[in-house]
Write a structure and sequence with these properties.
Strand content: 15-25%
Largest sheet: 5 strands, antiparallel
Distance between the termini: 50 Å
Order of helices and strands: EEEHEEEEHHEEHEHEHEEEEEEEH
Structural class: alpha+beta
Number of domains: 1
Number of strands: 18
CATH architecture: 4-Layer Sandwich
Length: about 350
Amino acid sequence: MAGNTFGQIFRVTTWGESHGIAIGATIDGCPAGIPLTPADIQQDMERRRPGKGGATSPRQEPDKVEILSGIFEGLTTGTPLTLIIYNKDAHSKSYDHLKDIFRPGHGDFSYFCKYGIRDHRGGGRASARETAARVAAGAVARKLLQFEGIKVMAYTLALGGIMAENFQAEEIAENRLCCPDKAAAEKMEARIAEVRKEGDTLGGIVEIIATGCPAGLGEPVFNKLDADLAGALMSIGAVKGVEIGAGFAASLMKGSENNDALTPEGFSSNNCGGILAGISNGDAVVSRVAVKPIPSIGKPQKTVNLNNEPVEVMIGGRHDISAIPRIIPVCEAMVCLTLADHFLRQQACELIPDSGE
């Protein structure tokens, strides 16, 4: 299976399956000399891990990260970093009745068409469990970005059709849905409770903002920063759409409305989302993702089995009501990985060989 490695200089390969012994990531290209401990990674892992109730799965995974290589005396050595997370609470038998059935909305059918075999235990590599490895690697990228004053944060903009109308940064940490609007968060909670009783699930929108990003990041023509960000965020299984800046709303504007005027103090607006011609302009890099509802629902659904016979299935087991808020640190991780890779690319671009004169 190809396609498990992300990045060109800061390269991350994730490995492992949802119900395997462990999952993890190997990072190649991380610069030497960055202070790093498992605790630095663990704080992001705590935000993603299952088992915290509410809208999330009751699967109890400690998601404790161990660093197997690439660290000496608390500093990165410049050699490959290997991170491992052991699976402790996988209940594979819950999926036995689905062994020969393609679950609607999942990757079961497409994986089988591609490889002729699939891991039915929670979806294998297609499971959201794989994103734990991304978050671990993203925490390392975050440490690198912090040295450059770049900060990445994400929050719930919408859930179940309920939109945040106000933005108060302090509210993000005050409610478990990570919503900047207290009143909207309360409505979202009520919506989750309602849909849980129905045996159904919800989608939503997450917004990600990177501040302190220097101008000049991005590689025209095919490795534009916004193109790579879109690809990184779309690689998350539950994401079905990405916007940069004004996004689709730009299609409703006039050029005079969409253009971000330049002033001696900077840009007067940020409809471009901090990226012009695929290169960062020094403003905040703003992106949003559309998150689909979790496909595992407690309602009867029509599908087919391996013999292409029509069957009806109702998914049991332990599943989230929504990928939000657990997907938030995953979105942050992918933005951190993209920015770290482009930052190192830009450093290489700025290295001018000594002419010897």
